[in-house]
Specification:
Blueprint lengths: L3 E5 L5 H11 L11 E5 L4 E4 L14 H9 L6 H6 L9 E3 L6 H8 L4 E4 L3 H15 L5 H4 L2 E4 L3 H7 L6 E4 L14 H10 L5 H11 L3 E7 L12 E4 L3 E7 L1
Parallel strand pairs: 1-2, 4-5, 4-7, 5-6, 7-8
Antiparallel strand pairs: 2-3, 8-10, 9-10
Helix pairs in contact: 7-9
Length: 247
């Protein structure tokens, strides 16, 4: 089992880091480059892991997320078309596999109310930190207000939730490649933390019972359909395919 600890690079943040460690039931230790660590800094909360280069954190204010928000193509982009953002429709969405929240941020920027479900507590912690920081930015505070986060198992949540959503969106873990250098370091971290994806078919089956309008699954363009379940239709981009299951 991968050893994970919580730490900080500032003595001023020791109490905050210790409290987070207690919440996550993880050890609080000094900085240690030989293990995966959730590290609280003055700027943000990040994950440091051996062999993954620079620390990983989530930022909705700058970088790739900000660029995609400005230049992603609005409601004309494949993701928006797959979700059904047309003729003024702005559906409610559950992102059942939130990950680093990139697609959820795009959809919130396009006006959707979206619930992000992330079952890995470390990734959920990064998301929570990023949302809190972005909420203080007046340029995107309205966008962030449309995003709510749950650290939960999506199958369990969907099986028990009273509030249904128009759309349930899934972005299952892509298959791990033998040549790990070909995979972005964020995805390699997800593979290391979450392990192999073993329940996408069950999640799809559950989601189809709950979604009021459709389930949308993001897949590599050449990937097999999840669980062999053929969608009603698909929308493709250069490297990605969105499989659409109508309710």
């Amino acid at each position: 089992m991968t050893e994970i600890t919580v730490s900080t690079n500032s003595a001023l943040l020791n109490d905050t880091a210790e409290e987070l460690a207690k919440q996550l039931s993880l050890p609080f230790t000094s900085l240690d480059s030989h293990h995966i660590q959730l590290v609280i800094t003055q700027q943000h909360t990040e994950i440091r892991a051996p062999g993954l280069g620079n620390p990983i954190f989530i930022d909705f204010e700058q970088g790739k997320n900000a660029h995609r928000r400005q230049f992603g193509g609005g409601r004309g982009q494949p993701l928006a078309k797959a979700i059904g953002l047309k003729n003024g429709a702005t559906p409610t969405i559950i992102d059942a596999t939130a990950g680093f929240g990139r697609d959820a941020f795009v959809l919130a920027n396009l006006g959707c109310q979206i619930t992000l479900i992330e079952r890995n507590p470390l990734i959920a912690t990064l998301l929570k930190d990023a949302l809190q920081r972005a909420q203080a930015n007046p340029d995107i505070a309205m966008v962030i207000s449309r995003m709510s986060l749950l650290n939960d198992d999506a199958i369990t949540y969907l099986s028990q939730c009273d509030k249904q959503a128009d759309i349930i969106y899934m972005d299952p873990m892509y298959p791990s490649r033998e040549k790990s250098a070909l995979v972005k370091k964020e995805m390699r971290l997800l593979h290391k933390l979450a392990g192999p994806d073993t329940d996408s078919e069950q999640l799809l089956t559950t989601a189809k019972k709950v979604a009021l309008k459709r389930v949308v699954i993001k897949r590599p363009k050449s990937a097999l359909f999840v669980g062999g379940q053929k969608p009603n239709t698909s929308i493709e981009s250069k490297n990605t395919r969105y499989d659409i299951y109508l309710s």
